[in-house]
Design brief:
This protein is mostly helical. It has three domains: about 1-50, no CATH class; about 55-90, no CATH class; about 95-125, no CATH class. It has helices spanning about 1-15, 25-35, 40-50, 55-70, 75-80, 85-90, 105-120. Helix 1 (about 1-15) packs antiparallel against helix 3.
């Protein structure tokens, strides 16, 4: 933990246990205290790669879902326009890349499907 982020560990030990200089304690004692830190501690977040607490992500997910449900009932939602941005994705720092295509005819769609089947499966699946 010290090698990963000593400042986060020092801050967590000070906040949780009132330990301001962990070097004055035996190594085993510091290890016990560090192991006892909660999941919301800075060092545990760093080690697990989390940016936000699980509670925050769950609340953001609920918010996104409710917002999407309300949007779906609007004129924009029924037309597929102005979809609300995801708070959860913003918190996680991820952006989902989606490729959307519009086809002007059934034949154009069929050609695109055949090309995709060849690309994915390596061979054409004829009728």
């Amino acid at each position: 933990m010290i090698a990963v982020d000593e400042d986060a560990l020092v801050c967590d030990l000070a906040e949780t246990y009132g330990i301001y200089d962990y070097r004055q304690l035996p190594v085993l004692r510091v290890a016990v205290f560090a192991n006892g830190l909660g999941e919301r501690s800075r060092i545990k977040k760093v080690l697990s790669g989390q940016k936000e607490d699980l509670d925050t992500l769950l609340l953001a997910g609920i918010y996104d879902t409710v917002r999407l449900l309300f949007w779906a009932k609007t004129k924009d939602g029924q037309a597929g326009r102005n979809r609300p941005n995801s708070v959860t994705q913003a918190l996680e720092g991820s952006k989902v890349e989606r490729e959307e295509r519009v086809f002007s005819s059934g034949e154009e769609f069929e050609r695109a499907m055949r090309a995709l089947e060849i690309e994915i499966g390596g061979e054409e699946h004829g009728d």
